[in-house]
Known about the structure:
Blueprint: E1 5-11, E2 14-29, E3 35-43, E4 48-55, E5 66-68, H1 70-83, H2 92-110
Antiparallel strand pairs: 1-2, 2-3, 3-4, 4-5
Amino acid sequence: MANNNSNNQQRNGDEVRFEIKERIGVLGSKENGWTKEVNIVAWNGGAGKVDVREWDPGHTRMSRGITLFEEEAEKLTRALAERYNIDIGEEAAPACAQAAQETQAAEVALA
C-alpha cells in the first residue's frame, strides 16, 4: 500500500524533510480530519523507519510522534501480541530480521 508523500516542514527554525514511503494503517481519527497513523517514513533523506504520529488530511503537517527501527517495531509487535494474547507465530521472525538487516545496510550506505 505504498503512497509516497514528500514534503518539508519548519520546526524550531530548522527544515525537516520527510517522505512517507508506505502507509501501514490508520489507528484513529479526529473530527478535524487529523489521523493517527503507522507509516514507514524517511526523515531528512535517511532510511525509512516505522513511524507513529498524527497527520493533517494533506499529510503536510504532523504532530510529535515516535519513530522506531525495524528491530524495535518487531519487539513492540511481540510485546503487544503477548499483552493481548495474540499468536503471531515464529514465521514472522525471519521476515522482520531481514527487514532490520536491510534497514541497517541502507543506513550504512547513506553514512
